[in-house]
Amino acid sequence: MVCYSYAIHVSPFLKNLCYYIYNRLNQKVELFCDFYNKEVPLEGIELVQMDKISKEKYIFGFIRNKYYEKRKLNSFIGCLKNKLDKYKIIFAVDFLALDIIYKSGYNLSNVVFLSLEGGNYFKNYDSEYILLLIKACRERIIADKDRESDLKMLLNDETLKFKHIPVSLYYRKPPLKLLDSDNSNNEIKLIYSGYFADWGCVKEVVDIYISSGINYPFLLQGHSWGTEEYLASIKKITSFKDNIEIDTNFYDDNEYSQKLSKYDIGFACYKDVNNDGNFSNIIYSSGKIANYLWNGLAVITNIDSQLTRKPPFILIKNDPVKDFLKGLELYKINKNNYIKAAYKTANKYYNINNYGSIMDALLLN
């Protein structure tokens, strides 16, 4: 697997894909990447050592960073040369990785292109070049037919064909949330878990919570790889709220699952900050939603789809605060139904085992 400028260490789909392959073939996936957080355990993944480049000191930081990034990219391409020929299948994590594999001189006929971020990585490339590389791949995988349609429209090519695998988890005995038979506990524990980033609507979520006037415990848990300033702004606006907690620790999958399962409702809201369509039709492309559901949480979201108009989802639209409060009341009354619906929805749509035929066709043929 080749991954460049992509936070694989916080991607549940990529980690679970590797774990699925490991369990299916009893063989670890060798990973070529430019960065991996060592705090996150590698399960089913063998990290290939890459040459590192140190940043030289320049008077102007912009020149230094631009020079460093170009040199780093060229070095990464150089490291891959003559190293990929031994692999029967290579997964390219979105288009940056596919471009790098191609520039390293490798034949793309054994490459599986994973389109995870829609057209977000296409901005600096000519559409003909993009299509040349994607069509040369052995297989192309995307979350669902809607994301496929978006990509075809963006590239103006209806002949592209993709296999569909939603952002799914290879789940192993999730800590089933105990059903509250009498619903006697009226306290609802809320969580936002994911990137502290503008596209994750963290400020908007905090604003909804504060404006609602409720005092339920609310945890903001996640990471800020490249978005440290945004996290600082979140800390500032929540500093006066004692019942809002911020947690930036990394957890392995089991620890993370145990932590999530202690909460009742998770926030999964998105906005298209770059106006590039990356957050359109994202219902089956959200690792956040998959994790929430597998741990028995209801999901508050602004994604309007057929799936989100019923439990375990709480849809917020035109009047977010009003919709939020109404959703909390419905959850209180029907808590058990929301929990059951969460597990049922996770197993039906976000279980990587359900797409085993697609994976096995790649791995076993």
Explain what this protein looks like in three dimensions.
The chain folds into two domains: 2-169 and 353-363, Rossmann fold, CATH 3.40.50.2000; 190-349, Glycogen Phosphorylase B (Rossmann fold, 3-Layer(aba) Sandwich), CATH 3.40.50.2000. It is built from twelve helices and 13 strands. It has helices spanning 12-25, 61-80, 94-103, 127-136, 145-155, 202-212, 228-238, 253-260, 287-294, 320-333, 335-349, 356-363; strands at residues 2-3, 29-33, 45-47, 90-93, 111-114, 139-142, 163-164, 190-195, 218-223, 244-247, 265-268, 298-301, 313-315. A six-stranded parallel sheet has the order 10-9-8-11-12-13, sandwiched between helices. The chain has a four-stranded parallel sheet with strand order 4-5-6-7. Strand 4 (90-93), helix 3 and strand 5 (111-114) form a beta-alpha-beta unit. Helix 6 (202-212) packs across helix 10. It is globular, with a radius of gyration of 21 Å. The chain starts with a strand and ends with a helix.
What brief labels describe this structure?
2 domains; alpha/beta; 12 helices; Rossmann fold; globular; 365 residues; 14% strand; four-stranded parallel β-sheet
